[in-house]
Design goal:
nine-stranded mixed β-sheet, alpha/beta
Length: 305
Amino acid sequence: MSSYRIKPKQVNEFVVKPIRLAGGGPRPSPVPHLFKINYPNIGIIAQKQTGKTTVISNIIREITRANKAAGVPTVVIFFVDTLFTDPTYKEIVKRLHRAKIPYILERSLKDADGNDQLLELMDYLKACNPEDDEWARLIGDEGEREGDSEESFSETEIDSEPEVSVGSPVPFDTNDWDIIIVIDDLSQEIRNSSTIPVLVKANRHTHATVILSSQDVIDFPLQCLSQMQYMLAFSKIPQDPKNNRLARLYSSLSLNIPYDIFRALYEEATSSDRPGAKSRNFLFIDQDRGKFRKNFNIGYSIREQ
């Protein structure tokens, strides 16, 4: 086999320089202790009774608090089947109401007539960004799809059960709003949605942080997993030979470590803090940077022995 010696040599003085954007460019992450980039896609895989909703609550709280301190308005949009039965979700909504943070509550991605409410939301956000050519390319033209509603999403009535107070209609009349979109407890709808893969590709164009949560990795369309900057993998993901969901998660992500190291990280991160107690810990996967943590606050260094 031939061997080659590679030697670099400068041939001119031209250096690529970043464009200086008006207003200083993209706003940095309001919560760098949680997520290094702003407007991330956050995937969560969690069985019942693992503390997943509590983690979602903490993410919403940290982002909305930081945005409020920075003078950035935030709206939280829920597509969650258990909104009115899960005590933690009910408390999340009550806290948003007390903090005067607007929100929209939906229990499904589709309305009673079968119309795609997520698609209607994206059409409305596209209308708020008429000069964003890439956003328009990703979303397509309004009126070309069946089931499109002529009603503006911002004018839709916000429905609620008596247990939860409702917020004000969302004033999407400016591009200065940050959006948090939570999609949870909708495994079949997530699996079959053709809109979610578009959302996670286009979310940064509308200043949207997307939290996509389900109990099983197979609920996530493959094209979605590659767009998740962060994955939170809770305990009890099956690993038996005929149903190795952990291996499927590993193979669906772009990671720079072998599977046996990934599995060891998962086992260590999701282990219980006390013998015999239920684990509410998770493996935090930073897919873009190849970093791993136990929960948000304990990082791992991986060295070859």
